[in-house]
Amino acid sequence: MRDLVYYESGGAWAPYNLALEEVLADRVGQGAVGCFMLWQNSPAVIIGRHQNAFSEVNLDELAMRDCDLVRRMTGGGAVYHDLGNLNFSFILPLNNRQNPEPDKVLEPLINFIRSLGASVAMEGRNDLSIPGQGKFSGLAGRRLPGGWQLHGTIMYDVDAGVLEKVLRVDPDKYRSKGLPSVRARVTNLKPHIKISLEDLWAGIRDAYGYPFRPIPDNIQKSAHDLAEKKYSQKYWNIGQSPPGDIRLKRRFPFGSLELHLGVKNNQIAAARLSGDFLTLTGPEDQKPIEKLEEALIKLPADQPKSWAQAWLNFDMRNIFYGQVDQTEIQKWLRGD
């Protein structure tokens, strides 16, 4: 992680900040220097690349609160941002195919927070938590052409009441842990570290020590253009309502899978796979998901065994990140 530069986005409009990440990621793929960035969003819900907005977000509540909804390029689950939240991004050039280990990338950040008196642990697939108190950070990453992106949240003083109203959190995420609500799964850092958000920001910046650089004007312009054309648009952030004739959903150790099927003349005419899973694939990280969907088209709608048979042609361990049992996915499709 040498030779990175430090950026600050300079704005709190969520579509711009997500667009800025994409522009910076594309430049790394073209040989540009990597970067570390700290930034904030005004109230917004950020959903994962593969998520179904209709299932994950209370869209009416979001509209009432004039809160942005933005889909990011990485997988994982939905998160709520406000100005009590601090976000970080790493855009890393890579010369090999091995993804960096998140705990190594985040070691300076974790050590700084620990130096303030808080216990910090990596939890599950992609969380930082204070043991016994809940998680304060969710992480997501993706491979780039010639690089890798890791980003995440740091809940300092987020309004948990709003968070609970705008997110439709799958109760299976916390039911197995005996927790009564989503609010019981998360914690703000503020009660645990006793410093201001400004000092937390400065301390994390200094813990990495990368030289500050202003974001070049041409990059800012590209990010603004991309925000207007993509990240502020309904086609990207919400998309079309998924097919509604058949719906299957199950939570696996690697994340949730939600399959919507549209039926015509007893054949599958449309398929949509969504969830809070992370993928192992490269920059075109939606392609394997699209292929899984396409494999179901024209199959008999009343023969789930044929759906499972179609997916036997795919090695799910090369698609989903985490503990993947292809046999369990087959059982789910067949309805066993």
Short summary of the structure?
With 336 residues, this protein is α+β, with helices and mostly antiparallel strands. It folds into 2 domains: 5-237, BirA Bifunctional Protein, domain 2 (2-Layer Sandwich), CATH 3.30.930.10; 246-334, 2-Layer Sandwich (Enolase-like, domain 1), CATH 3.30.390.
Shape, per Cα inertia axes:
globular
Parts with pLDDT < 50 across at least 5 consecutive residues: 174-184
Name of the CATH superfamily of the largest domain: Bira Bifunctional Protein, Domain 2
The count of β-strands is: 13
SS-based structural class?
A: alpha+beta
Structure description:
The chain is 33% helix and 24% strand. With 336 residues, the protein is an alpha+beta fold. It has 2 domains: 5-237, Bira Bifunctional Protein, Domain 2 (BirA Bifunctional Protein, domain 2); 246-334, Enolase-like, domain 1. A 7-stranded mixed β-sheet has the order 1-2-6-10-9-8-7, sandwiched between helices. A 3-stranded mixed β-sheet has the order 4-3-5, with helices on both faces. Helix 1 (14-29) packs across helix 10 (217-231), helix 5 packs across helix 9 and helix 13 packs antiparallel against helix 14. Mean pLDDT is 90; it is low at 174-184.
Task: Give a quick set of tags describing it.
seven-stranded mixed beta sheet; 2 domains; 336 residues; BirA Bifunctional Protein, domain 2; 14 helices
Question: Layout of SSEs?
Answer:
Blueprint: E1 5-8, H1 14-29, E2 35-39, E3 44-47, H2 53-56, H3 59-64, E4 68-71, E5 79-81, E6 85-93, H4 102-105, H5 107-115, E7 121-123, E8 127-130, E9 134-144, E10 147-155, H6 160-166, H7 172-175, H8 190-193, H9 197-208, H10 217-231, H11 234-237, E11 246-252, E12 255-264, E13 267-274, H12 287-294, H13 304-311, H14 326-334
Helix pairs in contact: 1-10, 5-9, 13-14
